[in-house]
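Ticket #4471: structure export looks truncated?
Reporter: QA, pipeline team
Priority: medium

Steps to reproduce: submit the single chain below to the structure queue and open the exported record.
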Amino acid sequence: MVTVQEAKQEIMANTELLPTEIRGTQAALNFVLAGDVLAPLSLPSFRQSSMDGFAIDHSDITQAGVSLNIINESKAGEPEKQILAKGEAIRIFTGAPVPDGATAVIMQEHTLKENGRVVIHEYPVNAGTNVRNIGQQIKKGAVALPENTFLSPGSIGFLLGLNVENVEVYKKPKVGLLVTGDELVKTGQPIAHGQIYESNSAMLVAALQQEGIFEIEVRYAKDDLQSTIDALQELAGQNDLILATGGVSVGDYDFVGKALEAIQAVTIFYKVKQKPGKPLLFAKRKEKLFFALPGNPASSLVCYYEYVLPAIKKMSGRTDCFLRSLRLPSKIAYSFNGERDEFLKASVTNEEVIPLDGQESFALRSFAIANAIIYLPVTQNVVKQGDLVEVHLLPF
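Actual output as written to the record:
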């Protein structure tokens, strides 16, 4: 049995970065760049107005009330260059090219248009007012986004605005999911005494999809050794990361550990000094990773967020692998006995955290309304109201 910190260290030490691939920029959301992206052009690529108003030569404005002759207009997408002479103004719109000879743009709110002329009420006017210069956002050849950048919606928009059609990113793992348990019944089917509806697979698939992983293969195995061996062997052949839920404890019908040994996966650790989720198993076969999660749904989801998700992020090139951690005051007192660290489903609100009712390993209702997990080491087994506790924010 290992501690929580030892388990996390072992997982990080045994998790390897996946190879890279070329993806269309629009399909690269939530991926991580495998190299620097250089700007193929400057942004803006031409002098651009940041306001609706009038393009002028700022030196013409010697006092408030100067009147200039309006000679033309410049709108966004204007293909022809325009030239402005002294004493002239050009009606201009946001995003439109600033004419040669113009040094400033006056907001239309500071002007009065009459009889083909415009009266400028603003004074003084500085060169460059309301003008976006060439390369003001980024210059051609500069690093647009560096290696290891996580591609957010803003990243995608920025790169497409630079006409970057494809990017090299780290692959996300293909995930195989094994569900075991003869007592499990699929949703919508009739149920008999002693049976329960199976929800762990859908829960874990939803968690994986939230991380942007959609290549997921789900298999079901009966509570016998050979069925479990066959399912794990098939999943390991097609996937980078294999999760099993259930069948990992020490009961007569728990075969996952023996099946992993049969397919020559090396166990890195089995059992963690924590509650819930003690019977967590982590194994490896070459570059393939195996997590055997407890069958109780709350235990399974705690182990996913605390151990599986960090491995997925590291495989995908992320450096912020673990859940974001804060120290917040607890709204209520809490205490526990025993020699295992505790993870509590919790809700963060108004800069404090509330441990929720229903902390049992089978109780998923509290997870349904939780947005955080409180981590309490055995050295902090008594929490008074207002005491600071370590809080791991869930990724939503």
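Status: closed, not a bug. The export was complete when the record was re-opened. Leaving a note from the reviewer for reference: The radius of gyration is 30 Å.
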